[in-house]
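Exercise 3.2. Students should predict the tertiary structure of the chain below and write it as structure tokens, then compare their answer with the key that follows.

Predict this chain's 3D structure.
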Amino acid sequence: MKIAFTAPMKPLDHPVPSGDRTMGRLIVKALETAGHEVRVASTFRAWRKDGSDALQAQVKSEALAEADKIAEDWSREAYKPDLFLTYHLYHKAPDWIGPFLADRFDLPYAIVEASRAPKRRTGNWAFGFAAADAALQRADAVAAIQNADAECLREVVPVERLTVLLPFLDAAPFQAAAVPRRPAASQPLKLLAVGMMREGDKTRSYEVLAEALASLVDLPWHLTIVGDGPAKDHILALLPESRTTWLGALLPNEVPEQYACHDLLVWPAIREAFGLVFLEAQATGTGVIAGDTFGVPDIVVNGSTGLLSPEGNAAAFAENVRKVIEHPELAYRMGQAAYDHVAAKHTLSAGAARLEALVQRAVSNHAKIAKA
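Answer key:
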């Protein structure tokens, strides 16, 4: 099947690495693994940091001009995809291009990772909210990437068009890095945090982590940090220098071995959609301590592959770390369970199967509408 693809939140070639960009690339790779021919229809970025009717009206105008150009190119090339797929849609990143082309060429239209915040129905983001809702209503199949998002989508997306497509990763490099572990973790416990050091939720996650670890100075632990950014100095100043190793930003092929040589990934996950780092860590056989934010409970099995605490609760987070330090065999058990969990449910092949089901649902639903 020929699939046209766009990512209005962050194009696949965006220079700034992020979980969102990684997930978009994984979706394309999984579709190709399933035998589909994927073509990036547009790298237009609809996302804006600030919202207003005037600003988003301008973005809409630019998006539709881009869509017109794509339509002309497709007609000149005699190219017609079998489906248009949009990755990551919400009020800050509406999709005008996908619905326009789907209507112009009578295509099934599918969305992966849609979210909806009803409180944005009014206010500065009302224009973007309405545009995102219009795309959801046009879509023949919509996939939330976490169960929490699916709840809000049900108001506008009929049940026969809505599904939850749990995130996945190319687990092979992480599984290859996995090493046999001792039944009890090392002392001091080797903790790892992986996250960009930028302002906002990432910094807040580091702040919660620092607050939690400050209450555990009586116990043996050492923290390694992988990540860099403008908030680096602020973040590192929160942590004891003698117990912290900062590695900076690493190349993608250097990260798996860091997960594998640590006992636990520790990340409070403030406002994380799900946290790709949790899948990466588990794929190497490393258990996690995390906040129970949004989609995190969908990919971390609390009490089995990791321990979850209420989002932003440093005391509860610290208690979970303390539990593993005092019972180091827990790190071993969680790591074993984590490896098996990802291997069973979150590999590239598992993602390809879930995407194939979504694609077929979109095609089927579109055909039913055409016959009606």
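Discussion points: Residues 172-345 form a domain with the Rossmann fold fold (CATH 3.40.50.2000). The chain is about 45% helix and 15% strand.
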